[in-house]
Design goal:
By secondary structure, the protein is an alpha+beta fold. The protein has eleven helices and 15 strands. The chain has helices at about 55-65, 85-100, 125-135, 140-150, 200-215, 250-270, 290-300, 305-310, 315-325, 360-365, 395-400; strands at about 1-5, 15-20, 35-50, 70-80, 110-115, 155-165, 170-175, 190-195, 230-235, 280-285, 335-340, 345-350, 355, 370-375, 385-390. The strands form two sheets. Strands 1, 2, 3, 4, 5, 6, 7, 8 and 9 form a nine-stranded mixed sheet that branches. The chain has a six-stranded mixed sheet with strand order 13-12-11-14-10-15. A hairpin with a 2-residue loop joins strand 12 (about 345-350) and strand 13. Helix 1 crosses helix 2 and helix 7 packs across helix 9. It is globular. The termini are far apart.
């Protein structure tokens, strides 16, 4: 497994790009329409938000890839196309426009939108944007595509790896956006993966779900599960590896690299949370079961009091233990140990469910770093899990206080 300096255009046969079309009316310098295109038809898979209120693009994408095939992605930012009477019609129109520009069928398109909920999506700028963008997509357009799907993100998020499967070099690329309204089981987050691997749709869907369950579904910024979350993957088979059509060594290797990419993207999303100054990672070890380990890790990184303590560089370990304690499940507290670490070192703050004496100055020094790790050793089993979040700052309220206006 080798990391390469690229994104969704790293795999053979993929082109991408992004431009400003006018959905974002307050800043003409910000790109707001993106396309990812494969030169060959792809097997395709996706996972979606678990919010009962979901965007029209999800309705259309679910229908389009029901046959397990796709060849392009079109995505706008600045407007979520959610809770609109004409939302499905507009999402379908985006597919038609992209299909015409790329010489595909509308049902070959994965469509996505992100931005403000409940405002009518203007289709006219999107029509002009797709017409202008389609002729200029390229192997070098991956960064433009990433920038075009950003909303309150402060940094573009992309990743690519290559591996060898059956003597062939296989590449997997990804791009994502997400900064606020982020909560486990996906959030206001979009992730698009591409690969030149030859893999069947059922195995691609299985690989994606296995990866997402341990990565994107373990991220929380603010406890709000959004309406438009989607992670999709397209595989065009141009690497010409032996087709992955069942479980085994090749499938396991493919899952491992997809999970590695999704982990990296999940951490980037958490670290770029709205107003965030710190990435907070929580690892639970020695839990009775994996579901319980996941629940406890999520509970800690979603605790507003713990997040605020991380912002203030305050080793208030009682808030961590409190978040552990209100997690649903059957477990003991009197064996639990909590350590907090960063590049500045590690410090034990709780042992056997009770506080221990520690150097507050050393703890402050550790917590002033921009990446904090909370390790919870339960000593009650063999299961483990990791979740990612961020601190809670004044700027989070400022950003969300006037997000729409």
């Amino acid at each position: 497994m080798q990391k390469i300096n690229s994104g969704v255009t790293a795999p053979k046969g993929f082109l991408a790009g992004g431009v400003h079309c006018g959905v974002k009316t307050n800043n003409t310098a910000k790109k707001d329409i993106a396309i990812i295109y494969s030169e060959k038809p792809c097997t395709a898979a996706a996972v979606y938000t678990q919010n009962k209120v979901f965007g029209a693009p999800i309705t259309v994408t679910r229908r389009n890839i029901a046959n397990g095939m796709a060849q392009a992605v079109v995505c706008n930012s600045g407007n979520a196309n959610t809770c609109n009477a004409d939302g499905v019609e507009k999402a379908e129109k985006m597919c038609i426009l992209a299909a015409e520009a790329l010489h595909l069928k509308p049902e070959d398109i994965i469509v996505a939108s992100t931005g403000v909920i409940g405002q009518v999506l203007p289709i006219e700028p999107i029509e002009k944007g797709i017409a202008a963008l389609a002729p200029i997509i390229s192997r070098e357009g991956n960064l433009d595509a990433v920038q075009a799907i950003m909303t309150t993100d402060t940094k573009p998020k992309e990743e690519a790896y290559e591996i060898e499967i059956g003597g062939k070099t296989v590449k997997i690329g990804a791009m994502a956006k997400g900064s606020g309204m982020i909560h486990p089981n996906m959030a206001t987050m979009l992730g698009f993966l591409t690969t030149d691997a030859a893999i069947t749709t059922p195995m691609l869907q299985k690989a994606l779900k296995l990866a997402v369950d341990d990565t994107f579904n373990m991220v929380s910024v603010d406890g709000d599960t959004s309406t438009n979350d989607m992670v999709s993957i397209m595989a065009n088979g141009m690497a010409e590896n032996p087709v992955i059509d069942k479980e085994g060594a090749n499938f396991d290797l493919f899952v491992a690299v997809v999970k590695e990419i999704c982990t990296s993207m999940a951490k980037k999303i958490a670290g770029d949370g709205e107003g965030a100054t710190k990435l907070v990672e929580c690892t639970v070890t020695g839990a009775p079961t994996i579901p319980l380990a996941k629940a406890i890790a999520k509970s800690v990184i979603t605790s507003s009091l713990t997040k605020a303590a991380m912002f203030g560089a305050d080793a208030n370990w009682g808030r961590i233990l409190c978040a552990i304690g209100y997690t649903e499940g059957d477990f003991a507290v009197d064996t639990i140990q909590v350590d907090i670490s960063s590049p500045k070192g590690s410090i034990l703050v709780c042992e056997n469910g009770a506080g221990v004496a520690f150097d507050e100055d050393k703890a402050k020094e550790i917590l002033l770093e921009d990446a904090i790790h909370i390790e919870i050793a339960m000593k009650q089993g063999d299961a483990s899990a990791t979740a990612w979040g961020c601190d809670l700052t004044y700027d989070y309220v400022k950003i969300n206080g006037d997000y729409r206006t």
